[in-house]
Design the sequence.
RNA sequence: GCGCCCAUCGUCUAUCGGUUAGGACUCCAGGUUUUCAUCCUGGCAAGAGGGGUUCGACUCCCCUUGGGCGUGCCA
């Protein structure tokens, strides 16, 4: 538990968020661990917090998988929070899709599911708390509009560290403004044009504005309290240079290592829209605190948010959780999956007949590896091996062929009773596969399961169930249109007509025909295969013929001799 | 533009200063299977470029290039 000790000592300080305790008391797990209000265990609590949009993105589910794996490895809790504040998209159907995807991959959730839409009061209370503490202020955008509530990046918190003295050349034509909302100024572009910049007040500790002679036009410190309180603001003209003590926000990411971001590059953020609704940042932080999340494991598109979220935690009086940012999964072009990319949703993989365990296993291998040469790992092995320090920080792209290969290994191990229904469903996609003989189907499954990579491969089983065959032209040319083949097959047909039609007997018959017709041993097999199955690949020939049955084999041999073989005698 | 992050075979990855840079997928060749597939053996294939630090660098540092993310009263 190397990362728990120092970086994360949650002191059970959820007190400022009154509503969170309400939530906890409904959570049996919490009651068990911390029922008397004291901390007995530093149990890991992670969460998956998707927006239910009707589709679960593959990158999202990978984040869920890593969270789940981490929780199970640590013996902690894996929680689900449905961020359903977008009422238009968050339909019951979308939520059901989400739960189905998770159930399919066996991502079992601990405790009660939290629905963010029901947390509005808590979010508003948190906003109110910040406002009362002077950590938030209202600001009007337009004259006629209602004011939005901004979170003021705190002046000091323990997550800041000093970088050192900094100076910035400023465009003198654009005045520098100092207000509760931060510092606004313009720097010079390469061509000398003004480029607007702004940052929060806290980013400019010890700020001094200098003119071209080096004289100090304004110093922040004397009026700091008045500015912070919104009782004073300043506009300073002809500033050429700003000097200040640069500070940065720091956190130790469990996969990316030490992360820093200069405070002067961070802006105050809206937490309550002018219509009064809470924004993502507030809701997210608030709920993570309420669920007592200890580790946030999410996509690295959130790293920038983290710096501001940490400030929010501190302002709310809550110790921030530990963070682990996962690399993105990109498409075959190396670009992030967009909504237009097909095959990027969990449901698609399910529909395409991938085995959930195979997909689960494959997804763990994207951005993570156990460190030895194992690739096919069972759930238990994955849980045992999974640690965040082995997560890579470079993006990775999916390789469908490798997934298919892995899938094949999983399918081969499935009990026949599990394999059959799925194979049946795939077979039903084919016209000839809707109604098949049950006994034959079972036998064919038994014969071909081990060589099925993905369920749609069952389309190649056509020759067992249908007589409308499409002969592989290459196979016909290579194995049927050869001198003497027609005669040999014709002879075989005669002998098969009245001998036992069991695999071993069939094999013996074939060998005998080969000898009679002076065909090298085994060389007739592929010709027979093409004649009776129309393809060059398949299972063992003798078993295949036995399953096909005498009638079909004889008919097809007749057809091959008549229509496909070279007539050269 | 600025900020943050990333960089080993085509792809997924191993390597935590000293290796003939290993494995897997794909592809190719051979073997086993008197057939097909599996399987086995072998092969093709990588440290983006340039500077440092060091006896020694894929590994640490800097620069460049390339890519991603962020820069919303989206999440």
Sequence:
């Amino acid at each position: 538990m190397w990362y728990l000790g120092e970086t994360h000592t949650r002191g059970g300080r959820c007190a400022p968020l009154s509503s969170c305790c309400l939530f906890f008391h409904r959570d049996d797990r919490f009651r068990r661990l911390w029922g008397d209000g004291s901390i007995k265990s530093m149990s890991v609590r992670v969460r998956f917090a998707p927006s239910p949009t009707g589709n679960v993105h593959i990158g999202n589910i990978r984040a869920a998988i890593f969270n789940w794996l981490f929780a199970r490895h640590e013996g902690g809790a894996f929680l689900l929070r449905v961020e359903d504040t977008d009422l238009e998209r968050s339909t019951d159907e979308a939520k059901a899709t989400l739960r189905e995807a998770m159930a399919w991959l066996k991502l079992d959730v601990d405790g009660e599911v939290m629905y963010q839409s029901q947390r509005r009061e808590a979010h508003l209370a948190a906003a109110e708390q910040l406002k009362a503490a002077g950590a938030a202020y209202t600001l009007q955008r337009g004259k006629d509009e209602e004011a939005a509530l901004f979170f003021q990046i705190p002046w000091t918190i323990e997550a800041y560290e000093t970088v050192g003295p900094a100076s910035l050349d400023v465009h003198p034509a654009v005045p520098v403004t100092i207000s509760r909302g931060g510092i606004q100024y313009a720097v010079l572009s390469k061509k000398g044009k003004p480029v607007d910049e702004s940052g929060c007040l806290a980013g400019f500790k010890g700020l001094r504005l200098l003119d071209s002679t080096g004289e100090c036009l304004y110093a922040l410190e004397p009026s700091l309290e008045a500015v912070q309180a919104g009782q004073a603001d300043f506009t300073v003209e002809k500033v050429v240079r700003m000097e200040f003590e640069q500070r940065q926000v720091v956190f130790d990411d469990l996969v990316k290592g030490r992360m820093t971001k200069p405070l002067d590059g961070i802006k105050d953020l809206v937490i309550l829209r002018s219509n009064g609704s809470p924004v993502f940042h507030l809701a997210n932080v608030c709920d993570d605190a309420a669920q007592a999340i200890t580790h946030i494991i999410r996509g690295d598109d959130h790293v920038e948010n983290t710096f501001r979220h940490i400030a929010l935690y501190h302002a709310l009086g809550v110790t921030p959780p530990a963070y682990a940012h996962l690399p993105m999964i990109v498409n075959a072009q190396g670009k992030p999956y967009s909504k237009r990319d097909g095959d990027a949703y969990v449901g698609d993989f399910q529909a395409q007949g991938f085995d959930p365990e195979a997909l689960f296993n494959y997804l763990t291998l994207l951005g993570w590896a156990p460190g030895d040469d194992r690739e096919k790992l069972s759930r238990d092995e994955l849980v045992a091996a999974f640690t965040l320090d082995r997560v890579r920080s470079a993006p990775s792209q999916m390789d469908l062929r490798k997934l298919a290969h892995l899938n094949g290994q999983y399918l081969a191990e499935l009990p026949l009773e599990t394999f059959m229904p799925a194979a049946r469903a795939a077979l039903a996609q084919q016209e000839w596969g809707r109604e098949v003989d049950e006994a034959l189907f079972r036998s064919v499954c038994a014969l071909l399961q081990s060589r099925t990579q993905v369920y749609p491969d069952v389309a190649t089983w056509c020759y067992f169930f249908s007589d409308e065959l499409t002969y592989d032209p290459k196979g016909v040319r290579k194995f049927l249109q050869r001198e003497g083949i027609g005669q040999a097959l014709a002879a075989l047909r005669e002998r098969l007509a009245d001998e036992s039609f069991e695999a071993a007997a069939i094999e013996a018959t074939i060998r005998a025909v080969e000898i009679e017709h002076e065909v090298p041993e085994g060389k007739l097999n592929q010709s027979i295969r093409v004649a009776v199955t129309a393809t060059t690949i398949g299972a063992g020939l003798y078993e295949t013929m036995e399953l096909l049955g005498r009638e079909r084999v004889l008919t097809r041999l007749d057809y091959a001799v008549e229509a496909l073989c070279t007539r050269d005698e």
Notes: The CA atoms of residues 49 and 215 of chain A lie 52 Å apart. Chain A has 21 helices and 19 strands. The first helix of chain A runs from residue 18 to 25. The two ends of chain A are 81 Å apart (CA to CA).
